[in-house]
Design goal:
The protein is α+β, with helices and mostly antiparallel strands and 762 residues long. 61% of the residues lie in helices and 13% in strands. It folds into 5 domains: 208 residues, Multidrug efflux transporter AcrB transmembrane fold; 70 residues, Alpha-Beta Plaits, CATH 3.30.70; 136 residues, Gyrase A, domain 2; 198 residues, Multidrug efflux transporter AcrB transmembrane domain (Multidrug efflux transporter AcrB transmembrane fold); 79 residues, Alpha-Beta Plaits.
Length: 762
């Protein structure tokens, strides 16, 4: 590549500083608007904005796609039009699987009222314009909309015989176009089909209304959605409703008519209410954790890699800004696990730079010029970076496919972070380093060098490493067996896995265990009429977490009122979550599928890239080791096993394989540098090669582990309780991933190679 001139290098640096400054100003505005809750900001999930989430399951047989879509329209309409000032335009209603519908409404004022109203079924009625006594059944209000006449109710209209047909009499309704017989113009209409009973009743009503062109009002869910005039008697059961302004209005009216007669019955299987103040606190603390972690990482990079570290810091700043911009530009909903994904990806972003910088320092140590070392370093690091990040993307992809809600949000942000890290490391960092060099920083002392690296003997200690790992894993197995034998569950399943109701209350002070048992638990027991209650304090944010049997809406409302009355807290300081046992069993199954799927695809990829099943199998055994160690931590410390558990395990898998691939890439390179590609190496030479490969990547492995651990540690120290539950096992996983890459994976590869060698030389 053509080298830059000094003037070009200075110009590039100035432009990069200007770009980073601009994006810094731009992202600062985005973050401020987001914290202030403005519309022109990053979309926040319920755990950050506060609000309500509810998942329904259809009772009975799996419904048709059409019925599901109509039900979604029904719920969306209720939220947008029928729930008053409690609603928000950011509500989201979507299908989950074949027979479930999820509703998410951030930022609502009275979440329990929303839950109650959403549970009310909508009804459809076709109403005559006049009753049998000749009085008007409906009139036009001052706002131009039709309303029931004074003194008229659905009950009185039924008794009067003014209800022509109801939703159950409707077979189908479709929006479409009809050609005007005179002009030929296409006009939007609703084509209506009635059953036998409805056909007869509609024929009688339209026959009576046609001579005077009376109207028949279509009344859905407490309001008139259309009041068409009757021009002709309709005896066939096939009617056409005209007068709609466009095809969208016709389709909307058709949906109202269809959903008014749906046979679908919905059952609530999970719900969550998050107070606004809880969400705001989560956002602030997580941002603070990310900033502190980022500053520590930047300082470390400069200390470890000198001027190369400075370039990495500049690229890292741009990387962080771009992540925020992408979330904003593409309308990606940011959740609490999503913030954890961003913070984690910042730590992992250093990895690519660490691989490159180690390579550059090695080349300088071999006596090559700084200029050629830069180019060679980037070239040699390319394969390790691509392979390592692709395996992490596999884990993120599995999370995105099998995960839902916040887990999927974590997967999206992690994937964005991985892709951006490759871009900033391979292009931005390279451009910056070449510009710094061209600007006059040409002394090799500014870049560092690696000389006469001591070869550490890892392979000889393989038995020791394996014994330590087995001891840790066995302790976890013993703990799970012991808990199961004592009538407890092997793992501390959270609501997501076991089912029930969790209520989180931010108190005005830290509550001790004794105060919770004496003051809080009796109130809860009195309201829910059960003593099966688990309550614990989260002292860092004055929270008390209460876990009980599954509570109905009325019970949750009663519990909230009792807590507010007794402890003088605000409604916004209370969050509640309902999860059915059905969801729990599905999540356990999903977790297993996710782990197995990610392991399978990683094995295939590593086998394909390294052309040797021994690389793939040893990497997979090592990451399963990391999964078991992380599981041991969950067992020994009784950590809550919930939805974040899936994200934690798969992140550990992705991180662990990333570390291992870097070492394997160095083994592959060192083998290629041997005669015949290393095929004729004896066991002593092979052992030396393995030790050398680990030693050559040792500093990079520690650097990456440190920077990633720092970011996760900040979440553990400063994050809210939900984040800390996720951060601790993830921190264990990061440390374990580094350990297994250095002390387990390569040793396994050597053992497999040795077995093949012995077999070949019998």
């Amino acid at each position: 590549m053509k080298r830059m001139k000094k003037s070009q290098g200075i110009a590039v640096l100035c432009i990069m500083v200007a770009i980073i400054g601009f994006f810094g100003w731009y992202t600062y505005g985005i973050i401020n608007r987001t914290k202030e809750g403005k519309k022109d900001a990053i979309k926040l999930g319920l755990d950050l904005a506060g609000g309500v989430s509810i998942t329904y399951q259809v009772k009975g047989n799996t419904p048709s796609e059409k019925d599901m879509q109509d039900t979604i329209v029904k719920l969306q309409n209720r939220i947008e039009n029928d729930l008053g000032e409690n609603t928000t335009t950011e509500a989201n209603v979507y299908k989950v699987g074949d027979n479930r519908i999820s509703v998410e409404i951030p930022g609502v004022k009275d979440a329990n009222a929303i839950l109650e109203q959403l549970g009310t079924p909508g009804n459809l009625y076709f109403i005559r314009s006049k009753g049998t006594d000749g009085t008007e059944n409906y009139t036009m209000g001052s706002d131009g909309a039709y309303v029931l006449a004074k003194g008229k109710t659905i009950k009185s209209l039924k008794a009067d015989g003014s209800i022509v047909v109801s939703g159950s009499d409707v077979k189908d309704a479709e929006g479409g176009y009809q050609s005007d017989q005179t002009t030929g113009k296409q006009t939007p209409v609703v084509q209506l089909s009635l059953d036998k009973k409805g056909t007869k009743a509609f024929a009688e009503a339209t026959t009576a209304a046609a001579p005077t062109h009376d109207t028949i009002g279509i009344y859905y869910d407490g309001k008139f959605v259309s009041v068409p005039s009757v021009n002709d008697a309709i005896a066939s059961g096939q009617a056409v409703i005209t007068g709609e302004k466009d095809i969208d209005a016709a389709n909307k009216l058709a949906s109202y008519i269809r959903i008014g007669g749906l046979d679908i019955q919905l059952k609530e299987i999970s719900s969550e209410v998050v107070g606004a103040s809880l969400g705001a606190n989560s956002l602030s603390t997580s941002l603070f954790a990310g900033i502190i972690g980022l500053l520590i990482v930047m300082i470390f990079m400069v200390m470890a890699y000198r001027i190369l570290g400075l370039a990495a810091d500049i690229a890292l700043a741009l990387y962080t800004e771009l992540i925020i911009c992408i979330l904003y530009w593409f309308g990606i909903t940011l959740t609490l696990p999503g913030i954890a994904g961003i913070v984690l990806s910042i730590g992992m972003a250093v990895d690519a730079n660490a691989i490159i910088f180690t390579r550059i320092k090695e080349e300088i140590g071999l006596g090559h010029s700084v200029a050629s070392s830069i180019e060679t370093g980037f070239h040699k690091a390319m394969s390790a970076i691509l392979d390592g990040n692709i395996t992490t993307l596999i884990a993120a992809a599995v999370l995105g496919v099998v995960g839902t809600g916040t887990v999927k949000g974590f997967a999206i942000t992690l994937a964005i972070g991985v892709v951006l890290s490759m871009f900033t490391a391979l292009f931005i960092s390279k451009l910056l380093i070449r510009s710094i060099f061209a600007s006059g920083a040409k002394s090799d002392k500014l870049y560092g060098r690696v000389r006469n690296r001591r070869i550490m003997k890892f392979i000889k200690r393989k038995v020791v490493f394996a014994s330590v790992s087995l001891l840790v894993i066995c302790s976890g197995i013993v703990a799970m067996i012991a808990y199961a034998a004592n009538g407890k569950k092997a793992l501390a399943y959270s609501l997501e896995f076991a089912g029930g109701t969790q209520t989180t209350v931010v108190m005005d002070k830290n509550y001790t265990v004794e105060e919770i048992n004496d003051d809080v638990v009796p109130i809860v027991a009195d309201v829910i009429h059960s003593h099966d209650i688990t309550a614990q304090a989260v002292n860092q944010d004055n929270s008390v977490v209460i876990k009980t049997k599954t509570l109905a809406l009325k019970e949750r409302e009663a519990l909230n009122k009792a807590i507010i009355s007794k402890f003088k807290v605000k409604e916004s300081d209370i969050a509640s979550k309902n999860i059915s046992a059905t969801i729990g069993s599905e999540m356990r199954r999903t977790s297993l599928i996710a782990v197995l799927a990610s392991v399978f695809f990683m094995l295939i990829y590593i086998w394909f890239r390294f052309k040797d099943i021994r690389f793939g199998s040893s990497a997979i055994i090592a990451l399963l080791h990391d999964v078991l160690v992380t599981l041991t931590m969950y067992a020994l410390f009784r950590l809550s096993v919930g939805s974040a558990f899936i994200a934690c395990i798969l992140t550990v898998i992705g991180y662990s394989v990333n570390d291992t691939i870097v070492i394997f890439d160095r083994i592959r390179e060192n083998l290629r540098n041997k005669p015949s590609g290393g095929e004729k190496l004896n066991m002593a030479e092979l052992e030396d090669l393995a030790d050398r490969s680990i030693s050559e990547t040792f500093t990079r492995s520690l650097s990456t582990s440190f920077t990633t651990a720092v970011m996760v540690l900040m979440l553990l120290i400063f994050g809210v309780s939900n984040i800390r539950e996720f951060a601790f096992p993830l921190l264990v996983g990061v440390v374990c991933g580094t350990y297994s890459s250095i002390c387990i994976a390569t040793e396994l590869w050597y053992v497999m190679k040795r077995a093949a060698y012995k077999k070949a030389h019998k």
